[in-house]
Design a protein that fits this description.
The protein is α+β, with helices and mostly antiparallel strands. The chain is built from five helices and six strands, in the order H-H-H-H-H-E-E-E-E-E-E. The radius of gyration is 59 Å and the shape is elongated.
Length: 229
Amino acid sequence: MLRSIVNLPFAVAAKAAAHRQVSVAACRLYTDKAKPESEKQGEQEKPQEPAKDDAAKTISAEEAEKLKKAVSDKDSKISELKDAYLRSLADAENIRNRAKTEIENTKVYAIQKFAKDLLDTVDILELALKHVPKDHLADKVANKSLVDLFEGVDMTKSSLLKTLERHGVETFDPLDKPYDANTSHALYQAPMPGKTPGHVFAVEKRGYIIKGRVLRPAQVGVVLDPNGN
């Protein structure tokens, strides 16, 4: 009996401890089950965003017309600027082409004035050779000095002409060809039996061209038509 009385507080304490454990477990179980519901409830209780206005903002007809005119003006301005830009490109390309052509012409015709001055020397040499009597040249023994001089002048003229040819200067002889005012200059006209009227029958000075351009026209005599045509 005394032992039962002694053990009574221990039994009460154990029962109380067991009761507390059951209460804690129940609280935990209740908290775990209630948590999703509270989260859902919190989501439902969130303030909703105000609905957007789907209707487009309307503008007056006058404002719409102003906008259309502004767009049209912009398009016109863009078109003008584009046209000006293309014209500028074309002008720049033309300038480059002209500059390139001028540079090439400068290189080709750089010696034109110098070559034209040398032609007077060629004319003098040809005139000297032309006035040497042929019969004097036939006797190479009696007229050896004259023959040697003639040959030396002729070689000088030939060398000079070859030098001009290396720089694009060429000679042309219009003898017995139709008269061309673009390449020849008529010094005189005379009727020549057996010759075609309008053709060249005498060449006083030969003509010269440089790269297809007339450097100096030939000085010629032209057959005159007896009928005056």
